[in-house]
Amino acid sequence: METYEITAPCHFGLESVLKREIYDLGYDIVQVDDGKVTFEGDAEAICRANLSLMTAERVLLQVGSFHAETFDGFFEGMKALPWERFIPEDGKFWIKKASSVRSKLFSPSDLQSVGKKAIVERLKDAYHKEWFDETGASYPIRIMIKKDEVSVGLDTSGDSLHKRGYRVLHGAAPISETLAAALILLTPWHPDRIMVDPFCGSGTFLIEAARMAAHIAPGLGRNFTAEEWTNFIPSGLWKQLREEAREEVDLSIHPDLQGYDIDPEVLSAARENARNAGVEEMIHFQCRDVKDLHHPKKYGFLLTNPPYGERMEEKKALPALYGEIGNALDRLDSWSAYIITSYTDTEKYIRRKATKKRKIYNGMIRTDFYMFPGPKPPKRKRQGEANG
């Protein structure tokens, strides 16, 4: 198969997690930039990346790149790219998004208009025709300009990859599926260790953990734009890879995943989301306040996205709330805790210093991921090893 450059955008600060995922799929990394990882792969890689990557926001097939400081230069650069390699004669194509950072060209609408005209001119020459009906498959295009360097890609995913297809109901401030998965992968959690989210909201942390434990590919329950691209992705490839992914699913596993919240309606939504995700039997949801959090099991994980206090009246309650988190951690003295929040006094009120803190954007909100790793559980003795 022909080889392409493929770019996977991700949350800023989580490039290393995505890089590890891509390596695990068996592909070579070309470049790592802020908020994206580029790798080499064939048509199968496009399908696998969409189906399997837990932390990527989408998968872009790189058409090309060039330098442009004027719209004339931008037009010529777009026209010079090999569009006929990807877009068939009846293909429907448009520039879905154009963004610019620290560049002389900055108007998205003008970039979209000029870019479309340039592509049409290129395809006129390639297909020897003056008009395109665009009645075939869709080929959405994304343009990113940074410091006058233009990068152009075809969007193979369609809807963002955080849309797994299970979360119909949301909590008040939901964390995205891709961010939740990335944060889980930043911890040493394993399915044989209990995980508790005392502010579980719509249940995303626990649902993503359950799907990881059961080896459910994140894209197994949805479709992708590139499924229509039969001009260079074999039509049976998607079906083959989906079947392979289904064979990997193991619903017999029973991880100990527990979610608490004080809002019964939110918990009802979380249960519905877990049901849609196929992991309802793996998660226990309960109406419980964080001040009542305790557990007899040792060496567990607390992973949560507590309230940030975005409104002034909510902010007043945060010292007491985070104090209760600290009290819970005092009771769970062998546990590890991982907390994502924008509350800058987190360490002060939970009364402990994070071993590590990572800056992450949750949507447009600047947050920190506080890591408080606890002691490791004692190693289990191997079978046949003498006691004593």
Question: What does this protein look like?
Answer:
The protein folds into 2 domains: 4-155, VC0802-like (2-Layer Sandwich), CATH 3.30.2130.30; 177-220 and 249-372, Rossmann fold, CATH 3.40.50. It has 11 helices and 14 strands. With 388 residues, it is an alpha/beta fold. Helix content is 31%, strand content 23%. Strand 5, helix 4 and strand 6 (138-146) form a beta-alpha-beta unit. The protein has a 7-stranded mixed β-sheet with strand order 2-3-1-4-7-6-5. The chain has a 7-stranded mixed β-sheet with strand order 10-9-8-11-12-14-13, covered by helices on one side. The termini are far apart.
CA distance, first residue to last residue: 58 Å
**Number of DSSP strand runs:** 14
Label the structural class.
alpha/beta
Please identify which CATH superfamily of the largest domain we are dealing with. Answer: Vaccinia Virus protein VP39
- Characterize the overall form: elongated
Can you list the strand order of the major beta sheet?
2-3-1-4-7-6-5
Q: What's the CATH first level of the largest domain?
A: Alpha Beta
Count the domains.
Answer: 2
**What is the CATH architecture annotation of the largest domain?**
3-Layer(aba) Sandwich
**What is the number of helical segments per DSSP (H or I, 4+ residues)?**
11
Cα-atom radius of gyration? 24 Å
CATH fold description of the largest domain: Rossmann fold
Please state roughly what percent of the residues sit in beta strands, choosing from under 5%, 5-15%, 15-25%, 25-35%, 35-45% or over 45%.
Answer: 15-25%
The helix/strand series, from N terminus to C terminus, equals EHEEHEHEHEEHEHHEHEEHHEHEE
